Amino acid sequence: MAAQPEPEIVLYDLACTKHVSFSPVVWRIRLILNYKNIPYKTIFLEFPDIEPTLKNLGLIPGEASKYTVPAIQHVPTNTYIMDSLPIAQFLESTYPDPLVPLTSDLGREIETKARGVLGKAIYSSVMPREIHILSPRSQGYFRRTREASLGHRLEDLLNGDREERVWDSVSEAMGAIGELIRTHKADGPFVLGAQPSYTDFFIAGSLQSIRVIDEGVFQRMIKYPGYGEIYGACLPYLERKD
Fold first, then answer.
1. Helix axes of 47-56 and 136-150: crossing angle, nearest 10 degrees
2. GST N-terminal domain location, by residue (predicted)?
């Protein structure tokens, strides 16, 4: 067996009991690493360990004043970076081939609209199920922090027809975003046509996160036009999950 290349990137990711990557924001970076074939290794962190670990590495949080994954170490220069967009910009400038366009008018429109619409669906369907793939330590942290902002138990999001009402309210917008995703369908399987962009990895990473958490919600998502097509086109770059 050929020796594996020494990692040039250390990727700090969020741990779960399935021992694979599931954070949508980390997946955006993992997809770039996989697509560009950059040698890397993963360090998975439990929720309570993210802040002390990243603080110990000397990272300083941005405007949100929060320590979050993804974070990376670029081993050749011993550079540490946190947050998906600054990391993507660094990777694109340091490893420009193959190109991953980080922004476009169409991409910005899709991402902005998807954050609002997908946010509602993920809030109602994914967040209350996410706790089931976390370790007991992370479950306690997750429940405490999420329920403090919710003002009620996570499980209440799934009570009665509450979840269905949310999906009904976003269904039309989900379809409209799907049609935007398919704007350049005649030119190739990705948002901009033949080659993937950061927007494709934004979509595929979100879908992969949902799939790890709950297959049923994932299947519900890909029934809308466009989403499943992007996911399928990105499958080669979704193979490495750890």
1. 100
2. 13-99
Strands annotated E in the chain: 9-14, 40-45, 71-74, 79-82
- Prediction pTM value: 0.95
Among 101, 113, 104, 115, CA closest to 24:
115
Strands 40-45 and 71-74: unpaired
Coil/strand/helix, residue 102:
coil
Q: How many Å apart are CA 197 and CA 202, to the nearest integer?
A: 9
- pLDDT tens column, 134-178: 999 999 999 999 999 899 999 999 999 999 999 999 999 999 999
- How many C-beta neighbours within 10 Å does residue 79 have? 11
CB atoms under 10 Å from CB of 6, counted, come to: 9
The closest of 223, 196, 241 to 40, measured between CA atoms, is 241
Give residue 5's identity as a one-letter amino acid code: P
Query: Alpha-carbon distance 102 to 64, whole Å?
Result: 22
